[in-house]
C-alpha cells in the first residue's frame, strides 16, 4: 500500500500518466480560491471568479466533466456557473476558471462561496485520509459599499500547489496583489465543506472539514529543521509566508489561510485560500535563496537586485518571480488589462532557463510614477531545483518588499520681494513643475496637492532614507494645486533679520495616498531695508494732560540697502502708537519727512502728553518712499513697547514686577532705582537683576555703592518710588551693529510697606471631582453647577501669632487657570465656607483672604483649582432613513462639560463632505450643501472643546469611521 501511494504522489508531482491507477476517477480538486471585482460605476455589479486547481493524475476525467460549479452569492441566490477556461500547470495540475457577473440589490457584507463535489483523495489531515468523500468549499467575503468605488479583491499570483520534503522547512507565499493599493494581512484558517444538495439552503452553509488537523499535528510532532522539538505551522501576518517547520511524514496535506483586505483601518474583505502540499521522502534538499532586503526607491528609478540561489545537492535551478509588478498570472500568462501601468518587472535569466548552482539572476524593474501607491509591493522569489533521476523537485521562497515613494520636488528657490499691492514683507517661492503622479482615482473628488512649509532658522538636515512628508519643526502655510510652480508668502508674521527655511511636499489623493520626499530647503532672510526701533524709554511719569504730563522718547535707525525698485525720495517716517504692551489699535503720532541726507536728525521723536503713570504703550514705525510722485509704504519696523512697572507693598517690603514687549532681547541685567523722597527725590541704583528675571523684592538694601549707599529699613509710614532700566540688543548681528545696546526706563511707581499686623493667609480646600469614581451619567442633563469652598484660619504662621481679629473673608475667583482672580463675594467672620452657585462649569480657580477689623487684608491663601471630568463618545453607525429611529448622528448619552464640537466628515477618497461647529453635534447624513449622501463608510474627525480649566481646552480629538446606512427609499 505504501509503495502504491508513494507512486501516486510521484505521479502527481511529475505528471507521469502511466503510473495513474484507474479505480478512482471521481477525485479531482486540489486547491483554489474566489476573487471578485466591481465592474460598474453606476450599479453594484461584480465579476466573481473561482480559480480551482484540479488533479490531472487521478482525476483527469472528472476534471474534464466539471463544466459547472455551484456559486452561493451571499444573498440567498445560488447559481450554476460555467467554466470559462482550463489551462495546464505542469502535467499534474490544471487551472480551471469559473466566472460570473452579479448585481447586488443593496450595500452590505456578502459571503460568496463555491462548492465542488469532490476533493482529490488521500489527504492525510482530512477525514483520516478519506478526503474523496469531502466536498471542496471556499469562501470570499466582500463589503458591497458604493463609496468603495471599483474595488477588487487581491489576486493570488502564486499557485496553491506545492511539494515539500521530510525534515526540511516548507514555505508558501500566495504572492497576493491588491490593485487598489489596500493593505493586506494574513491568518491561518480551517478548510471548509458543506452539506445539502444544490438549490438547498444547506448547500451554502459551511463548517470545518471532517476530522481536520493542522499538517504538523497529524502525527506526534517531530523536530524543526534546525533540530528544535515540536514542528510548527505558522503564517507571517504581514508578508503572507505560510511555513511548516518541518514535515515528519510523507503524504498529501491541505491547509487554508485567509487574506484580509483593509482600507483606512477598516476591514473590507476576506479571501480564503485552500492549499495542497505533497510531502515526499528522499535525499533531495531544497534550494536556498540568499536573503533579500526590502527596497525603497523613488518612482521613476530603475531597481535592480541580484538574486542568488544555491542548491545543497548541486542541482540546476530555475528562478522565478511572483507579484503585481510582474503582471503575470499563476501560470505565467500576462494580465490583460494589466494589473498596473507598465513597465513590468523581470527576472533574468528566469522562467524555464535552468542555471548551474550557484545561480545568479537579476531582478529588474523600471518603475514609473503611475505605479506610485501608499502600500509596498510584495515580491516573491521562487527557486525550483531540477534533481537527476526523476526525483521530485523542491521549491523555496524568499519575499521582499519594494516601497515606491514620490520623488522630491525640484529646484525650490526663495527670494524676498516687495508686493506690488503694498505691504512690508513678502517672500516668493518658485519650483519646477511636478509631474510624478499616480493615475487618477476612479470616483474620487480628491486631487494631488503641493504643500508648502516654513520654519524659522535654516539648517542642512535632510530626511532619513525612505522618509516621506515634512521634517519636524516646519509649519504648513498653504496648500496649492499640484500644477502650481510659484507662491508668494505675505504672512504678517514674517520678520526682518530672521532666516526662513521653506520646503515643499507633493501629496497624492486617496486611496493611493501618501506624500513625496520633501524638497531641499530654500533659505532666505528678509533684507533690512526698513528702519528698526532702537529705543522706547519713559522720560517722565505723568498723565496725558496737566502740568505733570508723561513723556516717552522713541528712537530708530535709518533704512539700509534701498534698491531702485523700492522707490526714491522724498521719504517719510510715520510713527504710530497703541495702548498696551501688545496693543494693535495703532494711531499715527507723527510723520517726519526726510531726504535721508547725512547729518539730518530724523530718527528720534519725543512723544509728550502720554499717560505713562497709568498706561504702557506700543510703537510702530512705517517707512514710505516716493513712487510715481506718490508716497508708498515700503516696510514697517517691528513694534516695540515701553516698560511696564508695578509696585506692591508687603510686610516690611515692596515687590516690583515689570514687563516689556520688544523685537530685541533684554539679555543684560535690569537695573533697579529707588527714591526715598517720592518722585521728586533723587533716584539711586540699588540692585542689578539677572536677565530674564522680571521681579525684585526690596527690603531696604542697597547693593550698588557707586552712586552712594541708601540702605535702611523700609518704614510702614513712608512711601518709596521706583523705576527700572532694561538693557538689551537685537539677536541679528547686522541689526545689533546699527543699534548697539538698547536702554529703556520704565515709568515711576510708588508704594508703601504693609502694616506689621497684616492678618495671616487662610488655608483653602475645594470639593474636587474624582473622575475615576464618577459614573458616566453623573452630570446627565445638568446645566447649572456649584462649588463648595472651605477654609481655616491659622493661629500661628512662621512661628508668630496671627491676628485673630478677623472681620470678614474675601473670595476671589477666575474661570480659567492663568487669568487674574477677581473678588466675587465677601463672607462675614466667623463663617468658613462659601457655596459658589449658578455656574456653567465646575472648572475654576479660587483663593481666599482674611480682612482684619482694622481693614487690612491678608495675602492670598493657597490657590485651589477645580477641573472637569470630560465625557464624550460617538457611535459608529446611524440610519438616516426617516423612520424616527437613529436618524441623526449625535453623541452617546450624557456628554459632559462640552463647550463646542468641530465636526468634519470625509468620504473614502479623503474629500470633505460635511463640516459643522457648535455646542451640539447633530448630523443628518447630508453634505454641507444639503445633498443626500449615499450609504457607506465615512471617516470623521471631531474636535471636542471642553469647558475645562484651561481656556480653549482641553481639546479631545476623536477619529473614526461611520457606517451610514440608508435604503433606496431614503435616497429619493
Question: Overview of this structure, please?
Answer:
Residues 1-26 form the signal peptide. It comes from Fibrella aquatilis. InterPro entries: Ig-like_fold, T9SS_type_B. With 972 residues, the chain is mainly beta. The chain folds into 7 domains: 2-280, no CATH class; 288-405, Immunoglobulins (Immunoglobulin-like, Sandwich); 413-525, Immunoglobulins (Immunoglobulin-like); 533-641, Immunoglobulin-like; 644-751, Immunoglobulin-like, CATH 2.60.40; 763-866, Immunoglobulins (Immunoglobulin-like, Sandwich), CATH 2.60.40; 877-971, Sandwich (Immunoglobulin-like), CATH 2.60.40. It contains 4 helices and 63 strands. The chain is elongated, with a radius of gyration of 41 Å.
Keywords:
4 helices; 972 residues; disordered N terminus; disordered C terminus; Immunoglobulin-like; mainly beta; Ig-like_fold; eleven-stranded mixed beta sheet; T9SS_type_B; five-stranded antiparallel beta sheet
